Amino acid sequence: MTPSETLRNVRRRAIEEADAYRAGEDRPLAGYAATMSTYAGTAALLVTAAKVASTEVPERPAWQDLALASLATFKLSRLMAKDPITSPLRAPFTRYRGRTGPSELAEEPRDGTFRHAVGELVSCPFCLSQWIATGFVSGLVFAPRLTRMVAATFGVVAVSDFLHFGRTAAEQATGESGDD
């Protein structure tokens, strides 16, 4: 069997497996594979850059940095995936479907293998969290002071959001209106 015949057989088999997996649903496996490959390549590049630059990587992150990065990742992933202001970034990959809550939009991925996969990624705060957390943790290795400042900003906004929701819940529980 020639290399081109082998390649055709592998491709045919991959298509058959993907079709069997989909069970009639729209599951853009090639888009998911490309997205995973992009993430893995980015992570490998960051590790390589740290080694080449002889950057001092701590044995383990400080718990304060992890807590701050966690809050910041939460806020930034919601901001990127749901906020009306960031909708122009998602628009090439999603369709607007309405509102889901205070300052949050409902969107669905557009058609197309790669467009759909990216649309799912950019409209899902849980999906974006992996990418954003990688950015914050890498930032703590390469530029810790600046990363802590950026993370602190998003962390403060996340706590502020919780306080706003808490106040709204308290007002609703007491029947008072807080239109201020």
Question: How would you describe what is shown here?
Answer:
With 180 residues, this protein is mostly helical. 71% of the residues lie in helices and 8% in strands. It has a two-stranded antiparallel sheet. The relative contact order is 0.12.
- For the CA atoms, what is the radius of gyration? 21 Å
The low-pLDDT segments are none
So what's the overall shape? flat
Task: Look at the structure and give the mean pLDDT.
Answer: 92
Strands ordered across the widest β-sheet: 1-2
Q: Say how many strands there are.
A: 2
N-to-C SSE string, H for helix and E for strand: HHHHEEHHH
Give the terminus-to-terminus CA distance: 75 Å
Structural class: mainly alpha
The major β-sheet equals:
2 strands, antiparallel
Q: Helix amount, in percent?
A: over 70%
Strand content: 5-15%
- Total of DSSP H or I helical runs spanning 4+ residues: 7
